[in-house]
Structures are given as C-alpha cells and as structure tokens.
Amino acid sequence: MPEYILNNEELSKMVDTSDEWIMTRVGIKERRILKDPGLGTSELGSKAILQLLEKTGTNPEDIDLLVCATVTPDHPFPATSAIICDKVGLKNAFAFDLNAACSGFLFALNTASKFIETGSCKKVIVVGADKMSSIVDYSDRTTCALFGDGAGAVLLEPTTEDVGIFDSILRTDGAGRSSLYTKAGGSVCPPTHDTIDNKEHFIYQEGQAVFKAAVSRMADVSAEMMERHNLSADDLAWLVPHQANLRIIDATAKRMGLDPSKVMINIEHFGNTTAATLPLCLWEWEPRLKKGDNIILATFGAGFTWGSMYLKWGYDGDKIAK
Question: Which CATH architecture has domain 164-319?
Fold first, then answer.
C-alpha cells in the first residue's frame, strides 16, 4: 500500500462532499494514494511481489509465469507484467496482463491455476495492482471518493493435498459496458485536446445501474457456488468480497446467509483498489486463516464482469511471518 492516506476530511476540501455522505453511501473513510511522480502500477505490483518472494523464500528465477491484473497499466504497451518482471528479476517467466476491471484478480487467478493444473507451470504469481488515482477526476464527487491505489500478490504451486482452488464461476455481459468505463484514450477515441478538456480520460460511472447489477449478480454467483458444492453458511469460514461498496458486500453476505463475522471487509481504510481488493483482504486476514478453511471469493466489475471462486486454504496463516 502507498504511504499517503487521503481521508474524507481532506477530500471534502477538494470537492463538495463530506465524511457522512461518503460513509453512508459506500462505507469508505480513507484510501491510499501513490503520489510519487514518475511511478505507476508496476511500482505497486513490484513491491508486493518482492515481499511475496521474500516471505515464501522463493528464487525469482524459479517463477514460470506472472499474470498481472490491472486496468491502469504503466503504458498502453509493453505490458505492465513485463515491466514488473524486469523490476523483480523474473528472468525465466513469461508474463501477460489481464484486464477484467474489478474482477481482474479473480479472472487472473482462475486463468493462472490452469497452467498449474495442466502441469505446464510449477510456480505462478498472480498480482492484482492498480493506481486508480491516475484515472480519477477529483472534481467528480460521484467517483473520486470510491477508489484507492494498491497491489496484492499470491504464489500458486501444485499440491496433492485436499486444498487449493476447486471451482470458479466467471461471467461477462458486455451490454453493461457503457455504465462504467473511460470514454477516451483507446483506439475508438484516441486522445485529443477535446477529450482532455472534456475529462474523458477519467472514470465515468452510472452509479445506480452499476449498483443494481452488482448487488444481484455478485450475490447470485456466490449463492450458486454454495449450491454447487452443498455448502451451508456453517461450512464456510470466510467470504472474500470485492471491496466496492459496503451495501453490496452486505447484500451478498445476506443472500449467502453468512454472519458478518465471516466476511472480510477493509473498504473503510483502502477504498476500491480494483484488481487489488481480494488479495489485500487475504493478506490482512492471513493470520486468522487455517488450513482447509472453506473460502468463497466474489467480485463484480466493469464490463460487466463478475464471478465467484471456491477454494480451501492451503496453510495455517499464523505460522507465516508477514
């Protein structure tokens, strides 16, 4: 996480908003911002991966694949994953970026797991990283309070034990693409003076449409995953939901019949870090995770994209030093 903290009090001096207004609608009190000039998403992703390599005692040259989930790449090309490989010393890995907006980490985790399952890779890193402040208009009260910067990374390895990723449900409905996107900057609408003057390189969101779709679809796939595997609320140790809006998280947990104590929530302090929210939750709750814990990951993002994943946690988190 970047060191700089942008809280609601400071934000209210930049735009017509208040702590009460933000907390009531989305449940965010502060967010981290990467303010250092000349640094982008690769900086966040690299730092997370360096910590991961040190924590697991992994030689970077032993990594076979890096998948970077992001919507805020350092450049249109080369891929941010390539830049990260150079920064952290992944000399023998192939790498690519994956863009599924707020569902990016879940989509990347599912994709990366297939390289393990087929036996083509032995060690794979998945990193979710976004510098959302680079595409946020801090004069737009409807979006500027929502997003923060951050990154989180995980290491995937094969196992013969009854743990790991068991199932995923991933969905996309492109009909929702115009409700949450950046209007300019791509091949359809390249940058011009007009697009810059009209602030079309920032996030555009139709809040009600996104909220309505997120509430139903994230809850639907989470409940569907429980039904597929005959899991009751008592069987689940944790729900790891995308941190976009506290009301969406609460609605998903209620649909699953989960007690709030089983739901990982850190949106108050980090905001929506897009592809980084899920791994940041796992990182923060790691000391409380036990080997064999039944966990469901759930997300919803622009596209529209959404999904859920069922996994059994692979180790006792309190035995791993941060």
Answer: 3-Layer(aba) Sandwich (3.40)
Label residue 77 exposed, middle or buried (CB < 10 Å: 0-12, 13-18, 19+): exposed
Q: What is the set of active-site residues?
A: 102, 242, 272
**Other beta carbons within 10 Å of 191:** 12
How is residue 53 written in tokens?
Answer: 């390599």
- Establish whether domains 4-156 and 164-319 are of one fold: yes
Pairing assessment for the beta strands 294-301 and 238-241 based on DSSP bridges: parallel
- Domain at 4-156: CATH architecture: 3-Layer(aba) Sandwich (3.40)
Reported pTM: 0.97
| pLDDT tens digits for range 138-162 | 999 999 999 999 999 999 999 999 9
Burial of 284 (0-12, 13-18, 19+ CB in 10 A): middle
